[in-house]
User: Fold this.
Amino acid sequence: MKLLVDPGELASYEGWSREVYADLLALQEGRLAAGEFDARYLVTKAVLVLDVTGFTINAMHGGALTSFLRILDVQKVCLPVLRDGGAAYVRTFADDIVALFDAPELALDAALEMQRRVDEFPEASTAYADPPEICIGLGYGSLYAIGPNFAMGDEMNRASVLGEDVARGGEILITEGLHDAVAPRAALAFDRQTRDDTPFPYYRVERTS
Assistant:
């Protein structure tokens, strides 16, 4: 069986960088210890994953361009919050936004502010039959600073599941890691959730005032 083991060619498919591929191959072959790999790439960050509701259904009924404009409006509202709110890294792709923060409190503040601004954005509420809403998942903990988002690992996976799959429009859901780092918090309640189809507990963030 012919295997692709050239780090440069592997990196050309834009999964990881050449350096990361070289180190993973070395790890696999026993030339690099797991602790050495961790020392090079493991970081502690808060991660925010935002998803815009209704892309598929709006593309089906209103056309792709309408869906693109809904995404554009959400980006116009949300990206300044991340830019001005201390995000260390921001990336948009399709109808998602991923952002990394050094401090978990900043990630939660940004999520709350983006939800507020999207809810109050008048152009979006009147321009579409189905105004856009945003779903947000937040996590905090150890991440590998590799891949397109510079964030891979369990906490990134959990935040992605919460933001993209579990949260409904207008919801902010957080992992236990993020909850333990920010709770308690004035004017907020953290409602613990469990679901049979979600393999970890999480919290719904709700304003109390």
